[in-house]
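Handoff note, outgoing to incoming analyst
You'll be picking up this chain. Sequence as last confirmed:
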Amino acid sequence: MTVAADVDGFLRHVAIERGLSANTVAAYRRDLAVYAAWLEQEGIGDVGQVTPATLSAFAVHLGTREESPLTASSLARMLSTVRGFHRFLLDEGRVEVDASRDLRPPKLPSRLPKAISVEQVSALLAATDGDDVAALRDKALLELMYATGARVSEAVNLNVDDVIDSDIVRLTGKGSKQRIVPLGSYAQEAVSAYLVRARPVLSAKGKATPALFLGMRGARLSRQNVWLIIRAAAERAKLDVEISPHTLRHSFATHLLAGGADVRVVQELLGHSSVATTQIYTLVTADTLRDVYATSHPRAR
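Most recent structure output, in case you need it:
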C-alpha cells in the first residue's frame, strides 16, 4: 500500500469515525501532504520503512528549510498530525511499531489569550445598534458570541432549534460534542428581536434553511462574514485594538473568571476537554490583579 493510500485511510478515519470538523480534516490533509512529499523525496514509498531517525530528520527539515520556514507553533501542529497518523497505522496493523512514539514537538512559549475590557466589549456591541435587518442580525450574533463564548464555527453552525426556551443555546463544538450554555438577558433580547424582525426578511431572500444566522441573500452566514461584521463594528466603535471572533471568546472567559466564576464551570462553558486549557485564562486574571495592585497600593512600588 502506498503512503498516499494510508493518508486517505487516516483522513477517512478522522472525518467519519472520529467526527472531526471539515476544517480540522483539511488541516490534517495539508500537513500530511507535506509529510508524504518529503517521504517521497527521501525515497520512502511505504510507511513500514519509516524509523524514529526518519521522523527526527523530518522534524529537522521542517525547522530549517529555507522555503516557507515554520514557526514553532506550526511545527508543533504538523508533528502532532504526523504522530496521530502513525498511531493510526499501528492501530490498523499497518506497522508493528509506532516510529513516532518518541517524537516530541518543540516546547512553545506560553502565550496569554488576548481579551478586551468590559468597556471595550460594551462599545463593540453598542456599535451594532440599529433597527435595520443587518443591524438586528449583527447585534444578535455578537451578543450571543460574547454571552456564550462560542467559537465562530459554533456560531455560524447554529440552527434556530438550537435556541432552547429563549434563554439556553445548544452549541456543537469540536468532535461534534454538544454543550448547553445559558443566554444572558441582553443576548436573549437581541436574539428575540432578530428572530421576529430580521430573520424572516432574510429567509425570504433564499432557500429554506434551518440556520439561525443568515446572510443578506438568505443563506447561512459564513465564518468570513462574521470576521467582516466584527471588524466593521470595531471600526465604528473606534477601538484601537485588533478584534477577531476569538477575541469575544477570550473576553467571555476572562471576564467570568475575573467575576469569581469557578474555572471548572468556565471549562464546561467553553467546551474544553481539559481544565489545563482553561487555566491559562487564570493567568490573564492574575496579571490584571497585579496591574491593579501595582497602581493602587501605596507600598506596591
